[in-house]
Structure formats: C-alpha cells, structure tokens
Amino acid sequence: MDTLERALFCLEQGFELQFRLGPTLQGREVRVYTNYPTNGYKFNRLQFHPLDWVYPNSQKDDCDKYCRLDLTVAGSYQYYFSCGDKEKVSGGYIVVDPVLRVGASNDILPLDRISSQTYLAKGLGPVDTWLSRIRVAKETGYNMIHFTPLQRLGSSGLCYSISDHLELNPAFSAGAKSCTWEDIGRLVETLRRDWNMICISDVVYDHTAADGAWILLHPECGYNLVNSPELRPAWLLDRALWHFSCQMADGTFSKQGLPALIQDERHMTALRGVLWQQVFSRLSLWEFGQVNVDEAVDQFRQALQKGAVSVRPPAGSTELKTLQDPQCRRFGRTVDLGSAVLAFSPLSSKPADIEESCCRLRKKLEELNWEEYRKMSLCTEQVLDSVLDQVRSERLAVDGPRLAVVSRERPLCPRYFTFPFGELSLAEEKQLLQTETAGRILAYDAFLRGDPLRRSAEPDPEKLLRRQLEVRGNDVKLRYGETPEDCPQLWARMRAYTELTARVFSGVCVVDCSSTPLHVTEAMLAAARALRPNFYVMAELQAGSQLTDSVFVNRLGITSVVRGVADRHSEEDWLSCFGKEPIGAFVQPSLRPLTPAAAHSMFKDIIPDYSRPMKDCSVYNIMVDSTLGSMACCATGSTRGYDELLLHQDSGRREALHYACWSSDAPKENHTHLGTGILAARLALNTLHQQLSAEGFTQVDVRQLGGDVIVVTRHCPSSHQSVVAVVRRADRSPELQHCIDVPPISIPGRIQEVLLEAVTVDHNVGTENGFSNWKIEIREHIQLQDSRVEIRTINHQSSNQEINFEKLPPGYVIIFRVALDSKIQQCVKALRHQLVQFSPQYQTESLPEQNPPSVLSQSLRTILSRLSLIDMNMLLYRCDAEEREDGRGCYSVPCWSPLIYAGLQGLMSVMAEIRPHNDLHHPFCLNLRRGDWILDYTVSRLLAKGGPVAEVGLWFEAMFGYLKRLPRDLVPSYFDAIVQGAYTTALNAVFSRMSSFVQTGSSLVKQLALGSVQMCGPGHSWTQLNLSPGLKVELQSCVSLAAGLPHFSVGVFGCWSRDTFMSFRGLLLLTGRHAEARNLLLLMASSLRYGLIPNLLSRAGAARYNSRDAVWWWLQCVQEFCTLVPQGLSILRCPVSRVFPTDQSEPQPAGAWEQPLYDVIQEVMQRHMQGICFREDNAGPRLDPSMVDEGFNVEAGVDLTTGFVYGGNRFNCGTWMDKMGESDRAHNKGVPATPRDGSAVEIVGLSKSAVRWIAELHGGGLFPYRAVSVSRGGKTFSVSYEDWDQKIQEHFEKHFYISNSPKECEDKHPELVHKRGIYKDSFGASSPWCDYQLRPNFTVAMVVAPELFPVQKAWQALSVAEEKLLGSLGMKTLDPDDLVYRGVYNNNLDNEDFSQAKGFNYHQGPEWLWPLGYFLRAKLYFAKKLGKDRYDCSVNLVKKILSHHTLHLQRSPWKGLPELTNEGGRACPFSCESHAPAMASLLELLYEL
Known about the structure:
The protein is of the alpha+beta class. The chain has 39 helices and 56 strands. The protein has an eight-stranded parallel β-barrel, surrounded by four helices.
C-alpha cells in the first residue's frame, strides 16, 4: 500500500474489497485497520478495528494472503495499516455508494439512471400545491427532485440565506394551517412510493442569514471581534470606509472634486487622493504589528539586572524573536526575552554593559518597527488600488451594474462586517473594541473577488484587510472550531438540522462544500447516515484539481459531484463527465486491482446560483446542453424553468414567482404542458437517458468537430447497439453564426431511426419570461431522409456508415439509434455463446449457432486435455529464436515491436498492458482493427505444429472466423476475450498435470512452475542421444530444458547440461514431471565420456566436455530423483544406452552398448578418483575463438588427502562462472575472468553429497559398489565411499573456513584475507588470492552438504553474505569491497578496461538470481537449528525478499525471472529475461517453506 489519502476508490455495494500486501510489506508484521462496520461493529468514525488475514491456499504465504471487506453499508470509510512497531504507516479511504430505492416494491434506482430537477423553494408556494407543480417533473421523465433549502430564509429572500435551520419556511403554509416537517415528509414519501421519485434537499453549513434571531442570540457561532481578534484591523478599515462613504454621500468632499456621483476617471483620481488623506493616513494600521519599544527595553533591562546574563554569542548566531499579540492590539507585539538575552547579552553585569545591550536592542526594535511600517504602507497602496478597482467596475464599467450616487443604501464599498448598533462616530466605534459588545460584530461570508467559486473555510484576515473579497452582505460565516466543545451551540444546532433533513429526505446537496470545514461536514453526514444508511450526497466542488476534489469525496463520501455542461471545452473535459469506458473497451476480470477513479458525476445543463446566471444562456444551447446532459453515462440534472424557457427563475431573484402547475389538457393560465418550451423533448431525453442506463449502454465516445459540433455515442457492449447524438453548440456570438458543413462522421453500424431531431428557429427579441418568442421545433421517431437538414449516408464494407451533414445550423440536435447488420448480430451472439465457457458475463445477448464448426462442438477445456506439457510449450510460449529454428519468428507489430513469445503468452503480455487502461490507440490494437494478420498468424502457427496443437489451431480458426466478420472497432475486445479465455483455460490444464505442490501452492509457486513449461521444449539437442530401446517411453517425454530466454534457447547454446541440472529439481521434480525427469537423467547418462557429461549439446553433435561441475549437478539430480519420486530408486537399474562406451570410441546407436545407471555413476566416481586429463576434440579457434591453446586441456581429479575434487587451470573456466575474455583492445582475450581452478567450494559440496549418498545406498544394499579403485605408481588400491566421505568431512573446515581469529588461521597466505568468518570460494587456486574472495557459491555446499558446516560458523558466514552480497533480486557474485568488483555488465562494451571490456565482469559483481535460492535455503536450514525466533525472523526475511520476485513476475512481459541484474537491482539489457535456474531455485525455496 502507498499513501492513498488523495486517491479515490468508489465502490458499489455487493463488491468484495481485498487488501493485499505490496512488496515492501511482505515478510513483516502488518495489520490492517478500518472503521467500516463489520462483524457487529457499529460505525464510529474514530474507532478502528483490525481485519483478519485470509490464506486462500491454507498456506502462510504473504504473496496471496489478504484481508477482505464485504461492502454492504454505504458511506465513507477509512483504513490504515500498521507495520511492526509503527502504529500507522499509511492509509486511505473507500467510498461505498448508497442504494436508492423507489416505488411500492422498493426497486433500485441506479446512480447512472438519475434524472434530477432542481426546484427553488421560493417557487413552490403552499405545500398543498406542490404535487401539481412537481408533476411537471414527473410528466417529463425526472426521477429525482432536488429542493433548495426549505427552511425559513433571511430578509434577503435568497435561497441559501437561511435564518433558522430548524424552522420550515412559513411561505409553505396556507391559511390558518401551518405546514410542518411531517407534512413535507409525507409528501416526499408519496413521491418516492407512488411517483418513483427520490427527493433530496440542500444543506448549508457554511453560513447563516445575518438577521437570523438565533445568530443574534449566539454571536459566538460566527467570527466576531472577540473570538477572532485578528480581524480587528480589517474591521477598523471597514468602518473607516463606511464613514468615508457616508461623508461622500453627504457631499463633504465636493469641494475637493469628489461628488457623490462618480462619472469619470477625473473623479477616480480625486477619490484616490481623498481616500489616502481621510482614511488610510489616519488609521495607522502598521501599529497593530509594531512593538512598544520603551516597554520592551525596560523589560529587557530588568531581566538583565536580575541576573539573566549569558556569555555573548558570536555575532549573528541568534535571531531576535518577536510574538504577535493574540488580542491584536496596537503596539501589542512583544519580544521573546529568551532570544533577546541570547542575541543582546552584555559583556558583564556592570550597569554600563547592560545599558549598552539595551541600546543595541532598542536599535533593533526600531528597525523592526520601521520594516513593519514599510510593509503596511505597501499593503495600504494595494488596498487603495483594490478599493478603486471595485468602485470602477461597479460605477464606471460599461458591462458593470453602473451604480448611481453613493448613499447609505449603496455605499462606496461593501461592508465586510455586521454593525448591530446605531450611528456612532469612528472614535466611539473604536472604543467598542475594548468591550464585550465587540463580540456582536460578525464577519460576513465572502469569496475571492472575480472567482465566486474560490472560498475558504475561515475568513482570511489578510484578504479582508486588502479588500480582495466579495461579500455576501446577507450572510455571516459560521465558526465551528475544531471540536464540538469549541462551539457547543452551533454543533448541536447543525446536528439537529442534519438529522431533521435525513429523516425527511433520501439525500442532500452540500452547498458551498469546499468552503465548509471538512471535519464539520464529515461529522454531520455521519450523523445523517446513522439515521439513513443509504444516504445520497451531492456537492459542487470548486477545489480546482481532481486530487483535491478527491479529498472531499473521500472524507465526506460524496456520491455525485455536480458538473456543468458550460464548463466543458475539450474532448477530455467531456469524457471526464460522460464517464465509464470507451467504445470497444476490454472486459476486465472479476478480480482485479482497484485503481483510483474520478468521482461519479451529476451532469447538469444549468446550475442555480452559478457564476453565469440562467438568463445569460444562449437560446441556441438550451436544447443542445439538455441533450449533452442526457447522453452522459452518469446522473444528469436540470433546473425547473430551464425546460420551459423561463430563465429568470434563478436563486438571485428576491421576489417569489411560483412555478406553473401541470395541465394535461388544453393550455391554462399559470399551467404548463408538453407543448411548453422543450418539455416534450425533455421527456424524450430523460426516457432515453434512463433506457441507456437500464439497457447497459456503458461505453461512451465523445468527439468535438470544429469546436462547435459535438458527437456523443453511447454503446452497449453486449448487444452492440449504439445511440448517437450530433449537436452544434453556439459558444461564440450565436447571432453571427451561420449554417456550416461538418466533417464526415463514422457511425458504428446502420442507422435504424432518428429518435429525436430539434432545431432552434425564429429571432430572440427577449421578454421578461425568458425566450418565449423563440421556437424549438422537435420531431421524434422519424426516418433519416425526413430530417430538416440535408444528410447523406455512405455504407462501408466494414459495416460502418458514414454520415455527411450539410449546412448544420446552430442549436441543432439529432439523435439516432444504430444497430449492427442482422447477420453480424447473429455472428456476435454466436461468438458470445462460445465465450460463455470462459465467463458467464457473456451470457447476455448470446445465442448458439445452428450449424457451428465441428471443432466448437466440444469445449476448449476438452481439447486442451489432450495436450501434453510439451504441447503447452508450443501453445503458450516459444521465443523468437525458437520459432525461427522451426522456420518462422514471432509476430512483429508494425510501428511497435515483435511480440516476446509466438504463443499465447506473447499476446497476453501485450494485452495485460493495454487492457487495464483501455489503451485502444496502442499499435497492437490498431493492427487488430486494420486487418487479420495477427489472427492468421496465430492460427497458421498452431496448424503447422500438427497433432493436438493443430486441433487447438482449428478451434482458434473457428473463433477468429466470427471475429473477422465483426466491425473492426470491436475486434480488439473480442480478440482479448478469446485469447484471455484460452490462456486461462490452458494454464488450468497445465496446473492440473502438475504436482499437488503446484496445484495447492500460492500464486508465486504457480508462476514459477510455469517456468517448467516455458523452458522445456522438444528435445532438438538430443538428436545424437538415445534412450535404451528397452525402456517404454513416448517421444514426447524427451525434453530439452533451455537455460534462459531468449539468449540460451537454440543451437549450440540451446542445452547447457549444467543449467539443465541446476534447474532440474525445481522445474521437473517439484512440478511432478517425473517421466521427463527420468528420461533426461538417462539421456545425459548416455553421453558420459571422460567421466564427464557434456556442457553443451547441439544437433550437429558438437558436444564440449569442458565443464567440471556439470556431472556433479547431474549426480545431485539423480539423488533428488531417487528421494522425491515414488519408487525413484528404480532408476538406478534402468538401462543406459551409451553413446561413447570409451573415451575414443565412435558414437554408438541406441542399444549397441547398454549398462545400468548405477554402473554409469560408478564410472563417474572411478574416473574422478583415478584422475581425468584430456584435450578437447577439435581444439582450436573453430571450437572457441577466444580461448588460448592451454585452455582446451581439461583436468579433474580427487585429492587423496582431503577427498576434495579439484581441476582446471588458469586458462579455462570449468564451473558456472565461465566467462572467457574476448577483447583484443583490453588485452583480456583468452583470459578467464573466473578460472576457479583447484577445488571450487560448490563442487566440493556436491561431491560430498554424492559420496555420502552412495555410501548410504551401498549400506542399504541399493548400490553394488562399496569403493573406487586407484592406480598410482604402479600400485592399485581402493578407497571406500565411507572413507572418501570422512576425508571431506575432516578437511573441509580446516581448508575452507577463514576464522575470526588470525591465531586460529592456518592459511598459507594470511596476507590475502580481507574478510573473516566466511568460507573460501575455492582451495588451491593457481592464483591464491582467488581462494579468499567472498562469493555466494559456498551456500550451494551448505544446502547439499550441510553437515560440513558448524551451525554458528555457518550462521556468521551467511550473515556476512547477507550484508555484502544480498541484492533486491539476486546475490552479488563478488564482494563489493573486492578490488575487481564491477557491478554493471555490458557485453557490448569494448574499451581498454581489462576488468569490464566485452562483459569480462559477467561474474565479478552483477547480481545473479539463482544463488539467492540457495542462500535463503541455507539461511532457513541453519536458522531452524538456532531456535524458533531465529527461524521465524528468517522466514520473514524470505517473504520480504520474495515479494520483489512476485512483483517482477507480475510486471515482466516474459513472465520469468532474469538471469541477473546490475548492481542495485537495476535491469541489465544483456541478461536473459527468463532464466531457468533462477526460477527453479526459488521454487525449491518455496518447497522448503
């Protein structure tokens, strides 16, 4: 989890939410806490409880475990997690949407189906007339009524100026009968039950009417001059400006050229001068920020005289601190005496020194006071400019209100504060600041000038002082404080107000949400949800960014964010509101990562109390905006009066004009009907909007053509019907706009009918009632040729239709329904019927075909059941090099890149990047839409393989046959559905053929096990090897195991025996591929020569027997086979058909020379004890162009004293660290980077394991040989396996361990020791310093022969390796402290650097992954011997480390682990992207766990 406080996660009820550990948290003690009410917990915002971990595979595996929440309760909920000792590491919010129900049957009203109409309360009249007025909304298809506040309003009559939040507006009462909240509640329930309409109401927490009786009784609920003394300078200026305005109205300044009526700039110049002289120069506002110098110096002097003297610090080392007066009085700023003493400390306590310090302090304070004066003078200039700008805009601007003379009713400047007193002089008013009556002076509600949407939760003293705000002179800002204790009266009142609203209404719209303190709204909405859990919350946010909007949505659980059509200016703007997904979007899996999303929208064509009044709307856009709102895939809304073209009824109008009632008959006075305005069109639009939601038209496309023309398409992803709206807005001088031609529009299908066409006609002369002289002609359900506008259509073979409009007038709207051709519809239904086998979501609009292709008569699961795992390699994987070996390569996407695999994984890897983001513009998707090349490639490739794989090819051919007949825009999504379904089915088939360890294992186990299928392909490299004819074996069981992809997969590098057997246990035995494992062991046994097995094999038979360790890895695998496979010991008696019965013999055919496997094993042991020495066949530059002549000499043997296997020379490299220098430029050509001659530690460990095992077998009567014989100096003697085993045991510690104490060290070269408490990498190397290098190879010996290592010493050595070698994904191959350490591998680099040129440092620092598995296995083994606590810590370390591999596997398009990384875990471009030993070693590690 990351810090997600600003990420928005909105979910519907019924979803299951899972919390899973990210890589950085795996292996740690993590608990997830939430305040979501589960398991009987009652919701409390401040109370959190932990969630239990769920282990889906009954295994304590961090990569799969999760906590879950079944989301059934609406609201905003918080979660966080702890980690170890950290109580709260990170967290975020989830928002669960409410479920709204209407009708007698409580039917669900989905959020996207909402059509809301806002009613201004003052237009409703007496409550007994409401149903008739609201029926207009019912008859025009609305299903939500949004009321502005129904409470008593202030004297201004403005909709949101509430004077009493608990009292109903008396205007709703008729005659003697008073309307009550119970009456409103009954009406609301009637609307919900009988008319299927939800009702919500505005709530206002931010402000209240200034003349409300309750606020006058409780002025502490507002920002007054007692509880907010920082406002005093602004109030003083406000009153000075008021008095100046009164004097100006009285003509006081006429002689100075400033009359009461300002008419020109000459008057403005005079105003500036008089204002400065009469107001600003006299207020001395700077004094509020200044220090009383005399008083401060006296206090300082007294402190020094009392002994507060310290050593004078260096000049400038201590800064003088001053503190602002909390009561904001003149000269109230004080000096922090502590900082003063430090900054101006005297040299001594002598009076003269003290006085000198006082003088220095006085000088500093005078400087500070001067700086404050300068700042305030500058501020005063800005205030003066602000005042003049406002006067100019209100009284001189052509487009302004052109206010008349200055008077007390219309003062020069608006007042920022209430003044509930009679007329007083300014001097008398200043005295009020010293009394409690100042608490009755309240700050008005205000917003930033020029931006009515920018408001703050608290009054800003600086902006008030600078006169930068526009005030709502009818309302005062409410002051809540941080907790209810700060203002109990206000909190209690607003809670009662909220609960009253929640009892009556199904939801609320939070007015001025952005400027209301978040914690207040949060608490109030929690109180509402306690009464009504499925509480709908709507708000208009003005935070300015989606991230900030998300904070409000998260904290408050906002269901829908109000957005206006008028705000949209680009395709991105439109799409952000139209929402959902694009046309042709991919079907997302049911279990998927939760990604942040935009908030659900309430898309309104007009918003009351908006910065642009309704009356300012262009008549051309009325129908257009209504259409755009209705086409949105979200909630949509309008305001009563808009549909009737009565745009005067906005919230700013004070007089009450009641809404007209409904009349279904002939027109009546004060009644309305479907013929009024656009009511008929609104009914059609609302009906369409709700049908689109009900029928699943969730996909949207919005295009803007030429600025004014907008095309909106709603598409159903199951039926593939579309509804297309084409509109032309009139945003730029509509009266000057003419009819225009529109670029051709492509329609996805064939137009069935025109659902609606509207044209705005006549000329607007304007009336009091709006646009009654305009007429919007509407026609419904007509044919395209009957349109008022000339429209030409062109049908394309692609099943799309091209529409050409000629002379499109402003305000034009046309909506038509589009459907696919009937044959294509049948094809889609047949395809969806086939896809049901993968997911039930395709059941909708599916229909079986009458005569489907025969291959489709059986499920894909049945077809795949006939494929072997070798066939699965063909179906799923095969990199480009492998495919080219068969005559073709991977498909290359034009303008992009080739696919990674030819099989399904290649397709899935690219689709996994595209699908979550619906990246339909990706080159891969473009290729799918433009032609059938990828489809044909996939089919032809599988058909060419023959056998069961070809049958899968026939299945794809049939499925793609449907796909080729679809509109091209639909091809990517259905292609993904087919491939994803086939891929998932194939994986399930793969796992069903594997061991129970894999089948019941974690997702990481399964991902690693797929490496077995990825790496094991047809055994091309075995053409020269044969199994014994006496064995019953299918050809398919002979596999070749690639070392890594893509570099080591074909040709001479297609089979490395060393890597094969390093991967053998993990990828074959643990996955349950026992038949292939047996055959691979026997095949390699047949290749034995010189006592070794070949390192490289190829079809041409160019085997190289230059690996000293490969045969020991093979023997370890034979041992593992016998141990892990049921009746595995029987392999020892299996016949081996030897290719080379002797070192010099020619290759023999199968069956010509056979012997049991135990004889081959004995030969390996015998040849090593006797000694191996030969020169490679075909030695020279043609065999290896980089090796010098001596390097072709191969030597191996056993030291009779120590029992150690040794070999090699300084010119070759016979272990896995086999990099040969290749650079002439750097002079390292022919020089092995890591010869590791002598006794390599891992070979000693592997040989110890083999010798011990053979001795045990012989002791149990399972191996016929007790010893090996040796001929030396003409004498022959035998060495028993028990003696050999004992020799290694006795000498290993002595020769390999580097003690912590130099005194205990018997090394020949103690000067070469640079790390202690470790095990050497080799013993007896030709370059002695190589023995002492710290490398990870000793961990292999620890795993296969742990008996060689004392527990404590082993643990210390592992701890050093952990500190020095452990990387994020792998192990450093060399100690970073080593002089030759080079951590970045670049095989293309050819320079003069001997240590790096041409990748010379392949094993000199880069972090290889396969040793990590052995390191961690050794760590677990020895930790268990050290006790439970140590073991548990090691298990957590393993989990933490493996989390990085889990993440890499998830993100890697190769779905494998790399061979190596550069230092710091950075990706290495020269590494194999998927490496068999890396995946195998971690699979073995997981098996140990």
